[in-house]
Amino acid sequence: MSAVAATVAGSDATTRVRPGSGVLRAVLGNKKALAGAIMLLIFLVAAIAPGLFTSIRHPDTHKFAQLLPPGSGHILGTNAFGQDIWAQLVYGTRQSLFVAVVAGALASILSIIVGVSAAYLGGLGDDLLSLLTDVFLVIPAFPLIIVIAAYAGGGSMLVVIGVLVVTGWSYGARQLRAQAMSLRNRDFLESARVRGERRSYVIVFEILPTMVSLIAANFLGAALYALLTAAGLQFIGLGNSSTDSWGTMLHWAQSNEALQTGQQWWVIAPGLCIALLGASFALLNYAFDEISNPALRPVRRRKVRK
């Protein structure tokens, strides 16, 4: 009996994988997810160290001649204010990415609290939390965002993030509740209840580790929603128009009729960056889909020796 136990222990030790290796393997094994990770890494580097991409430190105050065409001195030319469009684009990465990540993370945390708690508690608690989720699901999101941002003073970044969190958690909460409902009566949860573990312990240490891939996918979806919605708010003038972000670039470009006056890169560049960053979030979802659903993993054919 001891020999069998030793064999099992040895096999467990040899097959044990490091935490996070499944995610890394899924990203590296999926071309779409790898492309998304590379794009996201480029944006992260630009947000952390914009000086690697441009020598201009203050694009809003560093003025040049107006309406210069793209060239060696100005990659994307200058706008109607004499500002370098490329420098604005690089420095705008930080705020756009910050809003997307922070709002997406906070919305995901709220989704976890509401969705998983509702599924595990059951009864009246589940009914009340599910009703709250349904109310936010059926409310038209963007008109509500405009109203809240306008009355709360949309120029503040904290207000924009708060509005995005309040309006962006319900869809993820519904998904997490459905997944947690399927786990509620599993044997490992019953054994935790028999041991007398607290509800908070069961939720944090028993349920959530089995839902990591779904939580990560919900975070990416919430971050994508926050990115696009924040850019939309800034475009219509409900953001702080004096800060550097892709949405404010589009706002000022539209206000100065950029497309009609030959300043097309003032519009195309931030719009393209928003699309690429959103695409990186969407492409990374393929990796987490593979983790949560093995049927989606690509089948590698073995070469048959002749």
TrEMBL record:
Q: Which SUPFAM superfamilies match?
A: MetI-like
> What GO annotations for molecular function exist for this entry?
dipeptide transmembrane transporter activity
Q: Which residues cross the membrane?
A: 33-53, 97-121, 141-171, 201-228, 265-288
Instruction: Show the CDD domains listed in the entry.
Output: TM_PBP2 (cd06261)
Say which domain of life the source belongs to. Answer: Bacteria
Key words, A-Z? Cell membrane, Membrane, Transmembrane, Transmembrane helix, Transport
> Pfam families, per this entry?
BPD_transp_1 (PF00528)
InterPro entries (UniProt xref): BP-dependent_transpt_permease, MetI-like, MetI-like_sf
Q: Where is the ABC transmembrane type-1 domain?
A: 93-285
What family is it from? Belongs to the binding-protein-dependent transport system permease family.
Name listed for the protein in its UniProt record = ABC transmembrane type-1 domain-containing protein
Q: What is the lineage of its organism?
A: Bacteria, Bacillati, Actinomycetota, Actinomycetes, Propionibacteriales
